[in-house]
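Final report, results section. Input specification for complex C-07:
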Amino acid sequence: MTRSTHSVGPEELMAYLDGELPVERARQCAAHLEQCAECQTLAADLKSVNQQLNLWQVEAAPESVAGAVVPALESWRGLPKSKPGRGLTAGRWPQFRPWVWGLAGAVSALLVVTTLTTLHHQPSPAPSAALSAPAVGDQVAPASPVPPAPMPGEETQSLALKSPVGIASANRLLDRLSDRTSSSFSASDEPRSAQPGSMIARTASVTLVSKDFDQARSELDAVLRRHNGYAAQLTVDAPAGTGRSLTADLRIPASQLDAALAEIKKLGRVEQETQGGEEVTQQYMDLNARLSNARNTEQRLVEVLQQRTGKMADILAVENEIARVRGDIEQMEAERQGLEHRVAYAALQVQLKEEYKASLNLSVPPPSSAAQMKNSLVDGLRAATDSLLGLAQLLLYCGPVLLLWTLILFWPARVLWRRWRASPAAKSS
Amino acid sequence: MITATTSDEQLMLDFQQGCREAFAELFCRYRDPIYGFFRRRLSEFARAEELAQEAFLAILKGIARYEPRATFRTYLYGIAFNLLAAERRKRTPGAVLALEAPEPGSSVETGLWVRQALEKLDGRDREILLLREYEQFSYAEIAELVRIPVNTVRSRLFRARLALKDLLVSQQGLS
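Structure output:
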């Protein structure tokens, strides 16, 4: 069967495969396709192209896409109420063609002019109701079947892209995206502090002076146990002649930080207290997006490796790329875990000082003069020995270097010295 | 009451009435497709993301003028199409819609061969093919977006598919 004898054209066949033909014509096409080997080949080619096109998949949209949209949505106050013509939708207003609106506008304008002229000729003022005719032009619908799409830069420039305000809000929207039944993303004006989706790494530090150091220390351990925290580092110093001190770097579950801090502050007099919080939501979202992209890339690379047969160099290049992407993924996962831990556990630094009370202990007699003299002699001998040992160490340390430079510089110095001595200037002097 | 079956157009009307939840639902539905639209046509990951944002912001700002005469999908992609055209004009004045070379380092990926073959197609034919294959538009919707007759859409689509088949076959033969 030649192409000229086909009852269905090739483009029609394609339209049939795309489901774009009317039912009756599609039936005819199907019947023809069953009989015609040439058309079957063409159909197979078209399907093959379709399948190969499906191989090109792009990654999902990063979560940061919501970053600029959410603040704009939050700042959106709805359509202005003062202008009755604005925001009225075609669903509630009759759909007239533009020329109908134009005609109505012309008639309204004529009525206004006529009324004004009439009023102008009347001696007494009349209510000028006609002056408040609505601005018809505001409601003229576009002629295009597709509603007019705002051109880029037309109105969107007034909205700040990637506003920092939107970070937490974006997180809220993302929460909503993950749980569509949630009603948290409502039009209600909730206070901005109520942001359950925000990721904040909290830090605090407190410096205390305690009269009873031992009790404060044991209380501190008890507070840690009660609030399921742990000490990342703890140091106690007890130098002579001054009070003891404790420096601890604690990790407390973020939800219990306030309670734990309140209890710790009761352990003594607070000398200094600081609190901080770092918003890591954006960082976390970016990390997640990068991680997702990297995983997709890895998946695609693995598919490439499985499906494609090419040169050995190409295969090695793909394998290297897979190894690199895997390394990136593991690094990003570690970063993400670190971030999650920083958010889950607040860092609390505690410095506890003992209030030092000097005591005059007269029960221990001072050492005798002979003992003091003996101690001084021993100290002097020890200092002399130390200085001799130090000198010996210095010589041993510097000796080889000095010897080396002496050997290097001796002969040139000697030659120079002899020449200088043989010179007339030296003789005259 | 917004459900998964609420139509896009109804959501837009609800949004006009002040229901932000409706916009959030639309954003959920079209975030990935719109991003994919730009991602397939632009080489820069970040620029695709920004333009996807701008498309939704344009919806937000133009809500007062929205009228459900066509599907919301066509309306949204009309905006995206305009943004893309403006982006192209900004970069290369007078240029038609064209695929850009992939970013360095992203060359090894599934579909690279498809992308390379698509790059060799005529710009207008390619755009119609992309709209059909990846955005799943009907012939009539493509005609509305690109503002050409439906029969022209069909001819160009057919031409693009055959050309692409030849290109893919020749590439596979080389590999």
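The CA atoms of residues 125 and 156 of chain B lie 5 Å apart. DSSP finds eight helices and no strands in chain B. This concludes the modelling results for the funded period.
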